[in-house]
Amino acid sequence: MKQKMKKAVSLAVIGALAFTSAIGNNVESKAAAKTKKIVMNKKKVTLNVGKTFKLKVKKVTPSKASKAVTYKSSKKKVATVSKKGVIKGVKAGTAKITVTSKKNKKAKATVTVTVKKAAITPAPSTAPAITNPPAASNTPAASNPPANSNAPAASNPPASATPPVASKTPAPSKTPAPSRTPKPTPTPKYTPPANTAPPEADYDFTDEDSYKNESPESATTQVNADGTITIKYIKQYGAVNFYLPDNAENYYSDYKSVTITYTSEGGDLGYALYDKDMDFSGVSGDGSEPGKHPDWSKALKESKGKYSSISFNVTDECVGGVIRGVQIFCPDEVSDTAPITITVKSIKFNKELSANPNVPVEVPGTDIPGSWK
User: Fold this and answer.
1) How much is the CA Rg of the chain, to the nearest whole Å?
2) On the chain, which terminus has fewer CB atoms closer than 10 Å, C or N?
3) How far apart are CA 269 and CA 239, in angstroms?
């Protein structure tokens, strides 16, 4: 009896140890499955106002980690996002959606959302159907007298009588050709808002919404303590955009030129002007983006340690004849060991055309404001 009791106690102890070990392993595996990285189904989303897009977690690292996340919009007036990741465009502009792991607040991902106004295309008026003209009626043939009619024989006219001239049947009048329906007048590509832009656009480079690095793998950006911004181009076609707030949708951007004050070394750089249709969804390098008008002449000359100022006038291609933004890009091949570096002191949008555009002018002194002014 005692041996049976001892055996039962031993089995109970072994079972308890096994159960405790299983719980420990399970807790340890759960602790190990901590989310470290989040990858979304989209990095950039472009929407029209009123449209929606569903964000999804594509994968996490490690693979067994939790996919539970929260969503937050940087600009709810531009785009909102629901608890389930549904983005909705509110008004034209750019916003960032921050995705955070519920299991690890340090694991985050960002999605850039660009909201545009939907273009309204008028329906062309339907031209009235052309009515075929009625067929001309044939002149009726003279009816023959009935066979049983005892009509008196016609008396021969006297020799001196002049036979009457048979009157000609008038030709049927021609139906006038229907008039052509005029083509509908196309809707203007750009209707200026009622409000006009302020005389100056004051922006601080420390505001991350005042510029956009299109290709972080090709260029690096750094905002300096004095308010300037330094861009280092390490690959060809690196590009950084500087644009007006909210894409200037709420006011008439009547700027005719832009002035850049900078110092650079390592080579010359190109520039591009943007108009109302500018699109920041990606840089193709061939100037095919709507609203972008690049100049490949490398007008931003190397300043060799001195500050220079250069102005660019609006082009005839720009919609509405105004500037919405400017881009500085690298048209040549560069590398980490042989980069092109530019430090921008200020960018100024002007309401007048420059008298001497595309010509760098040395700026005396170094006391130049670091913000856009």
Assistant:
1) 40
2) N
3) 10
Residue 94 pLDDT > 60: yes
Check residue 123 and give its pLDDT.
53
Question: pLDDT-based confidence at 271, cuts 50/70/90?
Answer: very high
User: Of 248, 269, 249, whose CA–CA distance to 260 is shortest?
Assistant: 269
Question: Can you list the positions of beta strands (E) in the chain?
Answer: 37-40, 44-48, 52-54, 57-61, 69-73, 79-81, 86-89, 93-101, 108-116, 211-213, 219-223, 229-233, 239-243, 257-265, 269-274, 292-300, 308-313, 325-329, 340-350, 361-362
Contacts (Cβ under 8 Å, ≥6 apart) of 261: 307, 308, 309, 344, 345, 346, 347, 348, 363, 368
Instruction: Please name every residue paired with 81 in a beta bridge, in sequence order, or none if there are none.
Output: 87
* CB 325 within 8 Å of CB 278: yes
Its sign, for the CA torsion 25, 28, 32, 34, is positive
Q: Per the structure block, which two tokens stand in for 117? A: 């106004």
SS3 call for 361: strand
What CA–CA distance (Å, rounded) separates 229 from 247? Answer: 21
What is the rounded distance in angstroms from the CA atom of residue 368 to the CA atom of residue 227?
Answer: 10
φ and ψ of 17, to 5 deg: -65, -40
| The pLDDT of residue 124 | 53
Q: What is the mean pLDDT of the chain?
A: 75
